[in-house]
Design brief:
Layout lengths: L1 E5 L3 H12 L7 H8 L9 E7 L2 E10 L2 E6 L5 H11 L6 E5 H15 L1 E14 L11 E4 L5 H14 L6 H14 L2 E6 L2 E9 L5 E8 L9 H15 L4 E7 L3 H10 L2 E13 L2
Parallel strand pairs: 4-5, 10-11
Antiparallel strand pairs: 1-2, 2-3, 3-4, 5-12, 6-11, 6-12, 7-8, 8-9, 9-10
Helix pairs in contact: 3-4, 5-6
Protein name: Acetyltransferase, GNAT family
Organism: Priestia megaterium (strain ATCC 12872 / QMB1551)
Pfam families: Acetyltransf_1
């Protein structure tokens, strides 16, 4: 029997789902990383669990205005996913992100039920690294970003968000840059006194941390800077005590996927972000 339970209290939700998500920190890094940052004063848009015969099979968490994170604890049949869609149709779901096949099937069922359209926004691949296989080859050094770097960091975050199709204002880019710098896990690749690439480590869980915001400005590309930056940052995170690092790649960009695999990242799962909108 498929049932939906909605949570109002953050701690009750964390107590229910964290032990389950923690069994695979890399696969569930998005939900876990956000959960680790929530406290009793946090106000997530939605917290819910789909049960099958009293066992948790799907975890739903929304803190982003445009998407609900869907974490799959146990695979469901298409019939069971259809039942889940029936239960979820009364909830305002702007988008779903999670394991690709589950998200694609569930989102189409939801779109049909709500007389909406579902469109694939991001087709991604989740990678895990246990050991760096290819150390930095490009010249340069990894430098921790400081507040004096904020103007450059802001510009690059603003450019990066535009490139991935999630444009932000300069004000939002400043806030993001400040938060990254204060967390002390944003790094720049420096060559002869010039900064040429950037990468961030985020969403730490007990054993894993995620690398994101990997960006190299157009004129500095094809020189190996991003690869060296990510390789060195990944090693730094392993040296600091994390057992693994993880990252998401765009499936439509074979170059970045190849670069990360050469560093030592191994494919774990495919992920999709689907957005809902009214029929045209």
């Amino acid at each position: 029997m498929i049932q939906l339970h909605r949570y109002r209290e953050v701690q009750e939700f964390k107590n229910q789902v964290e032990p389950l998500l923690s069994k695979n920190e890399v696969l569930h890094n998005l939900a876990l990383g956000i959960l680790h940052g929530l406290n009793e004063s946090s106000k997530p848009n939605f917290m819910g669990v789909i049960f099958k015969d009293s066992r948790v099979v799907l975890v739903l968490l929304q803190t982003h205005p445009k998407q609900i994170i869907l974490s799959q604890i146990q695979k469901l049949t298409e019939g069971e996913l259809s039942e889940a869609a029936e239960l979820l149709q009364e909830i305002d779901i702007p988008g779903l992100v999670g394991e690709k096949q589950t998200v694609l099937y569930l989102s189409q069922k939801l779109a049909d039920l709500k007389n909406q359209e579902a469109s694939l926004k991001m087709d991604q691949r989740i990678y895990r690294l246990d050991k760096v296989k290819k150390a930095a080859e490009a010249e340069g050094v990894l430098v921790k970003a400081r507040l004096e770097h904020l103007p450059l960091v802001t510009e690059w975050i603003w450019e990066f968000m535009g490139v991935i199709g999630e444009p932000v204002s300069k004000e939002q880019a400043v806030k993001t840059g400040e938060a990254f710098i204060k967390a002390e896990r944003l790094f720049l690749w420096e060559v002869n006194g010039k900064y040429v690439s950037i990468a961030n480590a985020t969403r730490p869980t007990t054993h894993n941390i995620t690398i994101n915001f990997v960006y190299t400005p157009q004129k500095e590309r094809k020189k190996g800077y991003a690869s060296s930056c990510v390789s060195t940052l990944s090693q730094l995170m392993l040296d600091s005590g994390f057992q693994t690092t993880s990252l998401y790649t765009d499936m439509t960009n074979p170059t970045s996927n190849k670069i990360y695999m050469e560093i030592g990242y191994e494919h774990v799962a495919d992920s999709a972000l689907v957005l809902f909108h009214e029929k045209k």
